[in-house]
Fold this protein.
Amino acid sequence: MPQPLAANSAPGDDGEQHTLSQLRRGQYAAMDALVQRYQDRLYATVFRIVNHPDDAADLVQETFVKALQNIARFEGKSSLYTWLFRIAVNLALSQRRGRQYRATLSLDDTGDGDETVNQQAAGLRRQLTQDTEPDPAAEAAQRIDHQRVLDALQRLDPEYRAVIVLRDVEDCDYDKIAQIMDVPVGTIKSRLFRARAALREAVIAEEFRHAARRQA
């Protein structure tokens, strides 16, 4: 039987190494430990990028399939956590680039009231409303409601959405995001700066649209 990974264990710890050792010996039931530990976080992150619950679920499943197929090639230069997130984010971005996406649900509507997604959405709003420097965009972000922040997030380019989700929702540090997205740390910092600026502009646009609908 696979040994479950402790919820508070760090990437690369003994539990993760034990699971990796089992997988490399062909004991593929050990993948259950990774699924149990990471599937909710992967789903919440992918859902933020693709904005469709069925697509997000399919991509998370594909992530674990690809990880299992390529476990022999995993060199251990990053944690399994980072590796899984790299696979998942790349799959999500490829889907977004490859075809028109189904935008049938809002980012708050998971169909089943998924608590993980809602809690992470709340974390994103807290980040957006931090007044790091006085500017109209930050003040506007403080006044808008939860839904309009998430509606604005939908309007960003996939790469911008991904870096915001990883940093402000998943709370990854810059090094980890750079490993996941396979770009230098400096690129991540500049991309995140531009992404947050774009999101604040989108938030203001959402506020104007909402005001126009009220006056119509």
